[in-house]
Amino acid sequence: MASNAACIFCKIVRREIPAKVLFETERSLAFLDLGPLADGHALVIPKYHAQFLHELPDDEMVDLLPTAKKVAGALGCKNYNILQNNGRLAHQAVDHVHFHVIPKPNEDEGLVMEWQPKENPNLDDTIKKLGLPIVSRV
Predict the structure, then answer these.
(1) 41, 49, 96, 98: which one is catalytic?
(2) What is the pTM of this model?
(3) How, if at all, do strands 99-103 and 42-46 pair?
(4) What is the spatial distance between Cα 119 and Cα 3, in angstroms, rounded to a whole number?
(5) pLDDT band at residue 138 using 50, 70 and 90 as cut-offs
(6) Which fold, 8-137?
(7) 49 flagged as catalytic
(8) C-alpha distances in angstroms, 56 versus 11, 41, 96, 130, 138?
(9) pLDDT for 17-67, tens place per residue?
(10) Where are the domains of the chain?
């Protein structure tokens, strides 16, 4: 299993630092976030260290979303967000793949964001610009 000696999440996996563990499988770990946006805000991580989702081997991610689903169900919240960030510009604060399970009990708690879609995007131009390069890389 890949591990990083300095990574705080790897230290949690190795039980070098404490965490409020909610659920664990052979390949994943779920624990409460130390800076929650709402009560029950949890993190689901692979035990394998990878900074970005696209760097994580497929066999190491097989139960990440099933684990997130179980945590969300166990929290008993009807409304919640599952969030995963890659890179500093995308607000990734810890360089280890992780999913946030964030309960949304009301308008003020949980994830608060303003979605700002582009107006009248030309999707044909987007496909021409990005489509073939994306398809060839998948």
Answers:
(1) 98
(2) 0.85
(3) antiparallel
(4) 43
(5) low
(6) HIT family, subunit A (3.30.428)
(7) no
(8) 18, 23, 10, 24, 15
(9) 999 999 999 999 999 999 999 999 999 999 999 999 999 999 999 999 999
(10) 8-137
